[in-house]
């Protein structure tokens, strides 16, 4: 019965074979973590990996903006020492905040003072290629490309592998074959089918928590030879809020290009035609992005994306779940992508997986390890869902603001107003958003005094195109 409840050994420590479903950043980093505990790890990927840093069908967000927050950099570098230096060598821009960004949030322009945190904003295909090369260079890790998982093998007591078949029309009716494993980790992303697979072997599908603002965004690549003539900032950021629901981000990627992403809520989605995309900037509270686009040259079509709901699958709760199965990455918890948390949480989860399996004090049961993965994503969920439930038209069972949340929301609204001009509050605020500091750090005495009793300090009355001396 212990195994039936998912409390039996996870089989990661000393396991002969582990299978990871999905070769995304989350899957690759999970494979890296498992390689320290299994004799061999197989990453099963539906796509065939490109030789160069190119978008692929299995990453529908691959053409859109991605950032690696500071917590993700640190975790990734602990898993793959030197990988952050490799990203820099590959040309991924490193942006310091608040110095390197012209940012409007909560109706206030941020002062561009010395940076307290940094993020990388190279393209998703570039980062994935750097990580993939490092992980697959390990002889303990192999990739099974062009292959899809169609089910789980095992029963309600334990998962014992996956059922796979080659992708393509010629193999659509082929009988799936068994790929036996001591541990299966689902990193197949937002579109995971694991809940159905678990139900098929007699287990319970996880309870899902959802919150959907209906946000949609559209992205286009540009070149702007005059960017440095107009500002010494690396990027521009107009942050949406409940009163002003349109957003825009302009950030550099490698090779002198910029990604421009425009966003809006349900019923006011940004268009994906050329003229409509640029005309959409007329809705913003400041002409900053419109003026920037007027001097830039498009370098790609416009790509749209609308699957932005926050979804959390509660595999950590008690229930009829098998041992030997874990979920990570977007298959466990997917966030509104506008907050840029996904790759960072993938790295934090992989580190949590490695550490939970290596803990000498406790047997790494399936539920114990799954709870460690849940904890790795909790702060990002609190930020993303906590912000989204304040947006007009938010839907889902996680959209209700509870009475217990109202005092914290009042306090956090004061934090946001002061973060733009107060260096103490701003540093604490950025530390939490970068997932480097816990949310509790916003309530530290030094910060709380300024939030509760300090004045709202002056901020620029127009876009600060040049950093402060």
Would you mind describing this structure in some detail?
There is one protein chain. By secondary structure, the chain is an alpha+beta fold. Helices cover 30% and strands 21% of the residues. The chain is built from 13 helices and 21 strands. The chain has helices at residues 25-34, 70-79, 83-89, 124-136, 194-200, 227-230, 274-279, 288-294, 342-358, 366-388, 405-419, 423-433, 445-453; strands at residues 15-21, 38-44, 94-97, 101-105, 108-109, 117-120, 141-144, 147-154, 159-166, 177-180, 183-186, 208-211, 216-223, 235-238, 247-252, 258-264, 297-298, 303-305, 310-313, 325-327, 333-334. Strands 4, 5, 13, 14, 15, 16, 17 and 18 form an eight-stranded mixed sheet that branches.
Essential attributes:
21 strands; alpha+beta; globular; 5-stranded parallel sheet; disordered N terminus; 469 residues; 8-stranded mixed sheet
Distance between the termini: 66 Å
Beta-strand percentage range: 15-25%
Main β-sheet description: 8 strands, mixed
Principal-axes shape call: globular
Helical residue percent band = 25-40%
Q: With helices defined by DSSP (H or I, 4 residues minimum), what is the helix count?
A: 13
């Amino acid at each position: 019965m212990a195994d039936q409840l998912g409390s039996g050994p996870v089989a990661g420590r000393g396991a002969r074979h582990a299978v990871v479903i999905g070769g995304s950043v989350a899957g690759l980093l999970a494979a890296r973590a498992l390689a320290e505990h299994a004799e061999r790890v197989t990453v099963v990927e539906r796509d065939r990996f490109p030789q160069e840093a190119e978008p692929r069908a299995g990453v529908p967000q691959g053409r859109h903006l991605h950032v690696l927050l500071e917590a993700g950099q640190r975790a990734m570098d602990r898993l793959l020492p030197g990988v952050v230096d490799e990203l820099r060598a590959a040309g991924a821009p490193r942006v310091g905040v608040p110095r390197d960004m012209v940012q409007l949030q909560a109706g206030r322009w941020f002062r561009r003072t010395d940076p307290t945190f940094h993020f990388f904003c190279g393209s998703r295909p570039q980062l994935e290629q750097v990580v993939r090369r490092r992980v697959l260079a390990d002889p303990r890790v192999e990739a099974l490309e062009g292959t899809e998982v169609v089910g789980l093998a095992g029963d309600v007591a334990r998962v014992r592998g996956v059922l796979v078949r080659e992708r393509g029309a010629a193999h659509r009716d082929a009988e799936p074959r068994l790929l036996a494993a001591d541990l299966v980790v689902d990193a197949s992303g937002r579109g995971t089918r694991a809940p159905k697979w678990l139900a098929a072997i007699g287990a319970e599908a996880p309870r899902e928590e959802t919150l959907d603002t209906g946000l949609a965004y559209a992205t286009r690549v540009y070149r702007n030879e005059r960017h440095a003539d107009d500002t010494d900032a690396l990027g521009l950021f107009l942050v949406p809020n409940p009163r002003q629901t349109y957003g825009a981000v302009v950030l550099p990627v490698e090779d002198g290009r910029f990604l421009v992403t425009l966003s809006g809520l349900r019923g006011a989605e940004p268009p994906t035609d050329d003229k409509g995309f640029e005309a959409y900037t007329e809705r913003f509270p400041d002409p900053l992005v419109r003026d920037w686009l007027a001097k830039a040259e498009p370098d790609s079509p416009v790509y749209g994306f609308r699957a932005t709901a926050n979804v959390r699958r509660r595999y950590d709760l008690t229930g009829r779940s098998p041992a030997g199965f874990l979920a990570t990455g977007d298959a466990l918890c997917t966030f509104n992508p506008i907050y840029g948390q996904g790759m960072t949480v993938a790295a934090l989860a992989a580190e949590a997986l490695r550490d939970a399996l290596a803990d000498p004090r406790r047997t790494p049961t399936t539920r114990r390890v799954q709870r460690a993965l849940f904890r790795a994503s909790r702060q990002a969920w609190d930020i993303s869902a906590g912000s989204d439930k304040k947006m007009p038209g938010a839907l889902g069972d996680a959209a209700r603001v509870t009475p217990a949340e109202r005092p914290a929301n009042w306090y956090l609204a004061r934090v946001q107003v002061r973060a733009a001009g107060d260096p103490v509050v701003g540093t604490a605020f950025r530390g939490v958003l970068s997932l480097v500091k816990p949310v509790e750090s916003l309530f530290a005495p030094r910060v709380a005094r300024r939030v509760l009793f300090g004045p709202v300090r002056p901020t620029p009355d127009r876009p600060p195109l040049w950093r402060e001396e």
